[in-house]
Specification:
The chain has three helices and no strands. It has 67 residues and is mostly helical. It has one domain.
Length: 67
C-alpha cells in the first residue's frame, strides 16, 4: 500500500504539494512501521495458540525488503 504513494502519479502529485519528498517519506514510513509490527511475531512472541490473532508468522518472505 505504501508503494502507491510514490509510484502512482495521482497520489504522488497530491503529497508532493504538501512537501517535496513527502510521497517517498510516507512510503518509507509505512515500510518501517510494518516491519516493526511483523518482526516480533516472527521471532516467537505472541504464541498464544488459544487466540487465532496471535499466531506466529512462519513465512518470513513477507519482510523481504523491509529489514
Amino acid at each position: 500500500m505504501g508503494e502507491m504513494y510514490a509510484s502512482d502519479e495521482r497520489f504522488k502529485e497530491h503529497y508532493e504539494k504538501i512537501a517535496p519528498g513527502c510521497a517517498e517519506f510516507l512510503r518509507d514510513a509505512i515500510k518501517i512501521y510494518c516491519a516493526k509490527q511483523i518482526k516480533p511475531r516472527i521471532h516467537g512472541l505472541g504464541e498464544n495458540t488459544d487466540d487465532p490473532g496471535s499466531r506466529v508468522i512462519t513465512d518470513t518472505s513477507v519482510t523481504d525488503g523491509f529489514t
